[in-house]
Amino acid sequence: MKKRYVLLSIIVDLLMIGLIPLNLFVLSIPEWVMIVVAVILVGILVLFYMKGNGRWISKVLLSLLTIVSCITVLFGSYCNPYWNSVMFRGGPDTLVYDTEITYEEAKADIDCAMQDLRKTHPAFQNGIPMEVEQEYQNVMTQLQAAETIDVALVKQKLQQILSVLGDGHTCSYTVFQQYHYLKDIYPRSQENWQLVQVNGMTLEQLLEEYNSLYCYEVESWGIHMLKQDLSTLEGLTFLKIPMENGIDYTYENPQGLQETVTYYAEDYVTYEEYMALNQISESEDTPFVSYSIDEDRSLALLTLTSCQYNEVYRNCLKEMFTEVQEKGIQHVAVDIRDNGGGNSLVVNEFIRYLETESYQVETSVWRLGCFRLPLGSGTVQNKKYTDLTFSGDVYVLTSVGSFSSAMMFAEYMKDNQLGTVIGEAPGNTPSGYGDISVFRLPNTGLFMQVSTKEFYRADTDTQELLVEPDIECDADDALEILYQQL
Predict the structure, then answer these.
(1) Which residues contact 96 (CB under 8 A, 6 or more apart)?
(2) Residue 281: band (very low, low, confident or very high) from pLDDT cuts 50, 70, 90
(3) CA 85, 88, 93 angle in degrees (round to 5)?
(4) What pLDDT does 219 receive?
(5) Cα–Cα distance between 248 and 441 in angstroms, integer?
(6) Is the pLDDT of residue 1 over 50?
């Protein structure tokens, strides 16, 4: 047997399989390249058969290796929702909004987005939904008629297509080197002033006007995103709200007093200027999770600003529940207001400290190209930390800004009667799409996140569309309402 042919086959097979992690972590590779790769793998095997003169067992083993390698490279590209995604490697910044591009470049970007949707999103498994196809055709017509096309217009038109899905996880976004923030945001928020009107229009009226530019499942999340755009100069540029003559913001305080202020472009400052102007000190060590103990109220309050499941989070929980046990604390609350989500395992880890033996969880279906992979049984056995189990009252504080995995935290608490939810309904529905892959469009640098899974709520019998709070109140009042329950 000519060993060099065996060695050549093994090396080439391994190198070709190595294209999958190369694509995930380093660079984009067109899918057709993987077909060429599969042909090369088969060609190497044929060469071995023709000149290798190997024994039958070598031929069988190398044939199996080639078959497995071909299946791996083809499945790893055509059925991999992260193929050509920048989920694990990022990418260059988006071009500034006023950068002009050609119609051909704009069309190429939107067509690229449509291809990513066709391959990845569960709603596209059987082809492009009719309403999405119609909106795509409308957008192409509008772009062709446009006198000039800039990045902001392309994002508007892409959002116009994506918003038809009613999927809060599937949307486009930008990454700029520099953003400019309204300088009054911090002092206004400190005094609980709320933005209620812009240029004499309520936020609900504004959302109705700009409805096609936002992807959401519930109106409150649409308004939440609209307010974010209204807080930056870049957001106003995206909305194409002119600033030449100023823009009027009307605020209302908790006593119902209203005040209107006119802002101009110079009132939006860089992040560094914003921090200095408002005398905000930024610490790189500010944790995403922390807790405090109020012995007078017999309350432990866990503050979680993002759902990161790691050693820091696990250690924080352990320290808190250890102190809870040592001091005989009767109440535990989790503040997930304005927590945008992350890893859903944070709620599973939290429940390990509770008395329940098992609990209901979401199930999902993961789209893998032409395949649908059901995930989850709907019930999980609780692997309790028996030495630190807590049997007191649990509360969860929520806001419209509690999204994705943060929403799931509140969902599991409510659907399993493990705790009391106080505040506002989180910003997305438990039954819907999620678990994103992220792509970057080649000409504008716009980023687009696309759902890869369809989720089904833990409590399959509930008629609620949202995770409705047990005690509904403004998010800003949630902590005070919690104190009243103790």
Answers:
(1) 151, 176
(2) confident
(3) 75
(4) 93
(5) 34
(6) no
Per domain, the residue ranges of the chain are 3-78, 91-282+440-450, 289-430+466-485
Query: Position 248: which residue type?
Result: D
What residue type is assigned to position 303 of the chain? T
Q: Is 373 exposed, middle or buried (0-12, 13-18, 19+ CB in 10 A)?
A: exposed
Query: Of 351, 471, 478, 352, which Cα lies nearest the Cα of 420?
Result: 471
* Mean pLDDT, range 14-38, rounded to an integer: 91
Reported as a pLDDT band with limits 50, 70 and 90, residue 284 is low
Place of tokens 């984009």: 28
Please give the pLDDT value at position 424.
96
Average pLDDT score, the chain = 93
- Is 75 a residue whose pLDDT tops 70? yes
How far is 264 from 244, CA to CA, in rounded Å?
7
Beta bridge partners of residue 423, listed in sequence order: 398, 472
d(CA 216, CA 208): 13
Instruction: Give the C-alpha separation, 366 to 364, whole Å.
Output: 6
Question: What SS3 state is found at 280?
Answer: coil
- The total of other beta-carbon atoms located within 10 Å of residue 287's CB is 14
CATH class name, domain 289-430+466-485: alpha beta
Angle between helices 31-51 and 3-17 (to 10 degrees): 170
Amino acid occupying residue 30:
P
pTM for the full predicted model: 0.91
d(CA 464, CA 472): 14
Block residue for tokens 């106003």: 236
Residues 95 and 177: beta-carbon distance below 8 Å: no
DSSP E strands: which ranges in 18-130?
Answer: 100-101
CA separation for the pair 234, 275 (Å, rounded): 18
For every residue of 351-389, DSSP letters joined together read: HTTBS-SEEE--EEEEEETTEEEEE--SEEE----GGG-
β-pair partners for 101: 149
pLDDT tens by residue, 256-268: 999 999 999 999 9
**Overall average pLDDT of the 334-338 stretch:** 96
Return the residue matching tokens 């023709």. Answer: 50
Q: Which of 449, 352, 366, 338 is nearest to 394 (CA)?
A: 352
